[in-house]
Design goal:
This protein is α+β, with helices and mostly antiparallel strands. It is built from twelve helices and 18 strands. It has a six-stranded antiparallel beta barrel. Helix 4 runs antiparallel to helix 5, helix 6 packs antiparallel against helix 7 and helix 6 packs parallel to helix 8.
């Protein structure tokens, strides 16, 4: 009954569980975006009410479970989408982020009410483990989606996660398994869910593509049951995290000060397992069945992610190949294959105006590349494996680089790690040769260095789709003809391929 004439606040639709279930049953099952947006609205609406902790917990569990099919479906579609408009991409991502963010906050609020001893909070005793697992699962998934867009990770995520684990340890439910969702096999514990976050955080997700992030999340889920977290440092500890500090885990190479809130994780065993699965997948050319990935992904990306995880979880961190030097300078950047051709050979594009370039700030430089800062909102083309042409301020030569890492420190600031792949890029005209037939049309390619008569090998960047197996690429440079036979694709991006080629001088 609405309390209109009494002047009291109307009853909330979610104040009655029967009505709440009816509203959830009426969610648009065929529209995952609208479903998640409506659920986020209900989470926010319930949070503003002064419901008893037990009722808030029941509603949070109901809303969170109702959103799982839509979240899984939209997540698969987002990761698998080949082309999305910017408006579409932002709406999809916001629907996912909003659902997981609100779900996590709802569970954390319930646990805070229990910890504070609010009236009626005793009703939560029997479901503390499940609420903690759901809270940490939502926080871990929120972290994943923040990294999918290389967004800044809010410190509050780790603060909430540490608080949830601490409460679960206090109530002695941190290692008690519960069924996470009805109808979905697989039990978990609060400790295992916290370990998901730790393993994901230490896996350098800022250097992975969205698809690779998705694969890494699933591999981590398979690894977590064999991992433990301890309050005392084991001899093989690789990472530690202070659950009271609200900060992400750090390498044990720099041990922490002694504290009752520090927890230790040994990842060397997981690294060895990932390496063994990688070796088996390469040898058998089959997907490791124990990962439970089925036919969701192609084998190639899974193999690459396994190698990446094995390196990041190893007892010794991956060594930097080149020493960094701190500098402060401007860098002119031209994006993509077409942008590189435009600046290397302006006459090749009648439309070239230089307006497509951007100015970035270089923070460090090494023999292997640059570390740059983008102080405006990073452009849509700033993506892992993206090709760039770069020219340091005051210089006249361009180099080619590939984006390896993106860390968005704020919405309008990102750190970009760039690996140099060519220091003397040379644009050339190519013709495709199939057998003895030489194509009439020419294509633009970019050699990593000018060709010389004695060269046996060369690296060549071509537009995606130009090269096909079994074909040669023929070019002329300074009066000499060269035949390039691609041996392997060393790098591939959305608009280019970097080919390792065998070189022969073409006579006649």
């Amino acid at each position: 009954m609405l309390k209109i004439f009494s002047g009291s606040k109307p009853d909330h639709p979610m104040g009655d569980l029967k009505e709440a279930r009816r509203l959830v049953a009426e969610l648009p099952a065929g529209d995952p975006i609208k479903t998640l947006e409506e659920l986020a609205h209900w989470f926010e609406s319930v949070r503003a009410e002064s419901f008893a902790p037990g009722h808030r917990a029941q509603v949070a569990l109901l809303l969170d479970e109702a959103g799982q099919p839509a979240a899984r479906r939209l997540g698969r579609e987002y990761i698998g989408a080949q082309r999305l408009s910017k408006v579409q991409e932002i709406r999809w991502w916001k629907a996912l982020d909003g659902f997981w963010r609100n779900s996590a906050q709802a569970f954390v609020d319930v646990l805070k009410a229990f910890e504070a001893g609010e009236k009626g909070a005793d009703a939560l005793k029997g479901s503390l483990g499940l609420i903690a697992v759901r809270a940490l699962r939502s926080l871990a998934t929120q972290m994943k989606w923040l990294h999918v867009r290389y967004g800044p990770l809010e410190q509050g995520v780790w603060r909430m996660a540490g608080g949830v684990l601490g409460l679960a340890e206090w109530r002695k439910v941190s290692r008690v398994p519960v069924q996470v969702y009805q109808g979905i096999p697989g039990d978990s514990t609060p400790e295992q869910e916290f370990l998901r976050m730790v393993l994901f955080s230490v896996s350098a997700p800022d250097s992975l593509l969205p698809l690779e992030i998705d694969i890494a999340e699933r591999i981590i889920a398979a690894m977590v049951p064999s991992q433990t977290i301890t309050a005392t440092p084991p001899a093989e500890a690789t990472y530690w995290v202070d659950i009271a500090a609200g900060t992400p885990p750090l390498r044990h190479a720099r041990p922490p000060e002694k504290s009752t809130t520090v927890r230790y994780v040994a990842t060397a065993g997981a690294a060895e397992r990932a390496a063994a699965l990688h070796e088996a997948a390469v040898r058998t050319r089959a997907m490791p069945s124990e990962l439970g990935l089925g036919d969701l992904y192609e084998l190639g990306p899974v193999v690459e992610v396994l190698a990446h995880l094995a390196a990041q979880w190893a007892s010794k961190p991956p060594e930097r190949r080149h020493e960094r030097h701190r500098v402060k300078a401007r860098l002119t950047v031209a994006p993509g294959f077409d942008g590189a051709v435009d600046v290397l050979q302006p006459g090749a594009s009648l439309a070239f105006t230089g307006e497509g370039t951007e100015s970035w700030i270089v923070e460090n430089v090494s023999a292997g590349g640059f570390g740059a800062i983008v102080t405006q909102a990073p452009s849509d083309w700033v993506k892992i494996d993206g090709l760039l042409a770069l020219q340091p301020e005051g210089g006249t030569n361009w180099v080619l680089g590939v984006i390896r890492r993106i860390t968005r420190e704020a919405l309008d600031k990102a750190g970009i790690g760039i690996q140099t792949i060519a220091r003397a890029p040379t644009p050339v005209e190519l013709r495709v040769q199939s057998g003895n037939v030489l194509g009439l049309d020419s294509e633009i390619g970019i050699l990593a260095a000018p060709p010389r008569p004695g060269d046996r090998e060369a690296r060549l960047v071509v537009r995606a789709g130009v090269h096909a197996p079994g074909q040669n690429l023929v070019l002329e440079h300074e009066g000499r003809g060269f035949v390039l036979t691609p041996q392997a694709i060393a790098e591939r991006g959305p608009d280019y391929e970097l080919l390792d080629c065998r070189v022969m001088v073409r006579e006649g």
